[in-house]
Input
Amino acid sequence: MNTTIMLFLVQDGITNGAIYALLGLALVLVFAVTRVILIPQGEFVTYGALTYASLAAGQMPGTAKLALALGIGAFAFDLFEARKALHGRLVVRSFIANVVLPAIVLALTLSLAAQKPPVAVCIALSLVIVAMIGLYLYRVAFQPLAHTSVLVLLIASVGVHLALQGLGLLFFGAEGQRGPAVLSGAFTAGALRFTGQSITVYAITIAFIVALWLFFGLTLYGKVLRATAVNRLGARLAGIRTTLSGQIAFLLASVIGALSGILIVPITTLYYDSGFLIGLKGFVAAIIGGLVSYPLTAVAALVVGIVEAFSSFYASNYKEVIVFMLLIPVLLLRSLAAPAVEEEKD
Amino acid sequence: MQSRLPILVFALLMAAIPFIPGVPPFWIVLLDNIGLAALVAMGLVLLTGVGGLTSFGQAAFVGFGAYTTAVLTTGYGLSPWLTLPLSLVVSGSLAVLLGLITVRLSGHYLPLGTLAWGLGLFYLFSKLEFLGRNDGISAIPPLSIGTFKMLSPGSIYYAIWVAVILSALLTMNLLDSRTGRAIRALRRGHVAAEAFGVHTPRAKLLVFIHAAVLAGLSGWLYAHLQRAVNPTPFGAHMGIEYLFIAVVGGAGYVWGGVLGAAIVVILKEALQSYLPLILPGSGQVETIVFGIMLVALLQLAPGGLWPWLMSFLPERTDGKKPDTSLKLEHRARAPAEAGVLLQVEKARKQFGGVVAVNNVSFEVQAREIVALIGPNGAGKSTTFNLITGVLSATSGSISVLGKKVDNAPPQEIVKLGISRTFQHVKLVPDMTVLENVAIGAHLRGHSGPVSSMLRLDRTDEAKLLAEAARQIERVGLTEQMHQLAGSLSLGQQRIVEIARALCVDPMLLLLDEPAAGLRHMEKQRLAALLRELRNGGMSVLLVEHDMGFVMNLADRIVVLDFGTKIAEGTPATIKTNPEVIKAYLGVAA
Output
């Protein structure tokens, strides 16, 4: 082992860790606001990545159609829920948000896909498509269950994960794909070579963490989310629509997931089912962060990335064992410092 | 849960199925798989649905069971019947190890922790040389009795379903016992259970082991059904699948586990065989449909299908009143019953910069009713929590019968004969009043989990229930004895809490706002009961806001304001004390 290898491993670890940090942040966000442990987060990653790669390769991604289908479903749920007090404005608003919007995006995708649009357009389209999927998914799958226990939400989350993963195979096939680099070019500093892509990963991760911090600290919607996370009932009594908070959380999570996917697909080949493991590692980071602390989650994600890089170098066979077993000492520490506070569960 | 008849019918039905002419052999294979999944799900019912501990790691315990018998029968030529106890012991002892780490985790760390080691163990199974890595171990001998070898799915069918039905019976026996009540109380948080002497970490570990042993049993059967093992069926996906089997069936019900297993196994099979006919195309369509159906099922019946089905049956109110002639032995009492029972000396509790209780001193004598009053936020409930060991004091000391009990856990305090009720009612809403009250007598019974499962606890159990019934009668709730505690009015629930506290056979009763939510007549009855208890030799320390109630009842009153004691004395002197009037009404202009 020399310093060069070590530096390489650390660099590799930080790049992956940055992605895990983003995912960990999204998981923490969704859990805090909606109590859903978002297992389909991994699918947001693969959907983002593979939609982007397909578009860049001039293929039509099936996700755009899924967005429309889910949108129609969401519209139907809206109509059904408001069936006793239907009025025109509500119907029109829901129709525009849930049907017209994804239809426009689908038309746009259909017309652009064949012409191999530039990278920026591909990224924008992929983000919009996955964001809509996240939003409608919340309406269709989770909003009707919002009053149930964490366990039921979790199982529903598993169901969504299975369905989305199966759809992923349908849309993208079993073949892995790679996308074009978001930023090409590279430079060297000493022994290390920095690619444009890895610089982008760092920059976007940092930008996102800062943006989230500003969002939660300074904006009204950020405060609405925090209020919902602390106490749902209290937030409702204060006039906050908790479904709105859930929608924002899912929107953010799907955008973050898709973005992570777009960032890694130029570095590693992704398959329709790669998202699960990537998401789980974000999960590990989120747990180490205690599912509440954003900065701690980010630091933990970097640790997870670096441990993974080193263990794949030294004991590649046991890479996953080591990453997941990393949790046990953390949990042990947490349980030694377990708070004596009472928690009422339902 | 008492009646054995439906289970007998079910067992006979299952025994008859293979003899029905024309049953396709494939159905028997499905039933085998249902039985195997049902065993694991049943453990999860106890662990997750009843105990409130969500585990994703059960597939790993199935793996321990399967690999133990695979290695020992193929590598060392042991008989499968010899490896059965070994498989169970291996799963059980690894459950102790993993459980010690995980069950102490609170809230959502627990499911995540189990997911983590579930995944880790899966990768370990697939990497370890002596477990055959990804290829696993094959050529496992079949189960055999004499020369009869259980080679076909039809012959091992009986072994599997005998295991399922026996496990269901044992699990139901366990739930319907002293230990079972402690387990069922876990889900509602541990403060209430611990106040009556339940050692909650131990109870959690117990259900953890129970679930792991059932999973190990399923793994052992699986290994001898398939006669080969590889890591795939023990991965995280299966761990999640077992959990949703339990949730779909109805996570709080033993038979919900069996029903859930049947639904999920049959649904998956049907989707796999019929879906390609309807929707030809690439594979995995069944996964999509399966996922969607799962979500839809949860939206229609979030509590699972078993309770949903049961709601169609006429409600049974099998109100068999326990035989109250059975006497439960009194708690071993400390010899000195006169003089100072409880002495609080300069007790102080700080939460960060907030001083909730500020150097408060008072005492409770034998045969005395003392009231602790004060405006909201005066520190009354915190004082209660300090006395009962829920919170530990920042400084100062608390002694019971002259012995210091600083920082003793709640389980130790209740052993000294101090029992309590809670300001916010802490009953288990889906247990009957009788069962809730019987938790109070937890320390006065001694049957453990094994004797409960084998029904050797019946005399002990009958005495506990008799005592509970007596206390319910004493507080005047005999008519509600067999109703679910959650269905009572808040005032009645408070009275149930008093009955539960009385089951401890206490020398000092701590009541936190017992009269809140009671009607006038009920208050008078409560006051009469408390006087009767005092005259019988018990002391009462109560927090109460109803001044009329307190002034007529208490022998002595201690007044707190902002955590500090501002007055102490008889009701007559307290009524005229200027400090007290100032605290309650403000200063006159």
Remarks:
- Strands of chain A lie at 186-189, 192-195.
